[in-house]
Write a structure and sequence with these properties.
Layout: H1 5-15, H2 21-28, H3 34-41, H4 45-57, E1 61-67, E2 74-80, H5 82-108, E3 112-114, E4 121-123, H6 124-129, E5 142-144, H7 147-168
Antiparallel strand pairs: 1-2, 3-4, 3-5
Length: 173
Amino acid sequence: MLRNPLVQELLYGIIQEEENMCIVECLINGITTDEEIAEKTEIKLNIVRKVLYKLYDSGLASYKRSKDPETQWYTYAWEFDSSNVMNQLEEKATNRIGKLKQLLDVEEGNMYFVCPSGHSRFTFDEASEKGFVCPDCGEETKFEENDNIIRRIKEEIKAYEESYSFIKTGNAK
């Protein structure tokens, strides 16, 4: 699961430090207490706990608390939730595809005019309101063919749909 780039991207976004990925590996491999993880990874206990709480806050880890009858100290047994990883990846892909489709609709439904100096990009309506003149520099705006932008958006949608289908089939493991 951790070799999948989509999973890595999601986890890096949460734990933010590549060297802390070994904490997730420990959880996946069944090492459950923060003390055991700190010992195995040689990462300070407070950092291990920070990462575990970040995973918990993101819904990717859960814990059970138990009290040691002798010491009266609490022990936390942690568990990694791989199914929630897939759910989050699916949600992320769905949201991104939706935003890209909206952007595609806007690009396909408009003609664009740009400032030759690169100041601004306007829809036909915006450009006509401004007299087809850039408000920043006063140069006449030029028609922009947006076929390349539309093509790139379609390619990105296709890539996300492929990764979404990859996630849905459970092959992201």
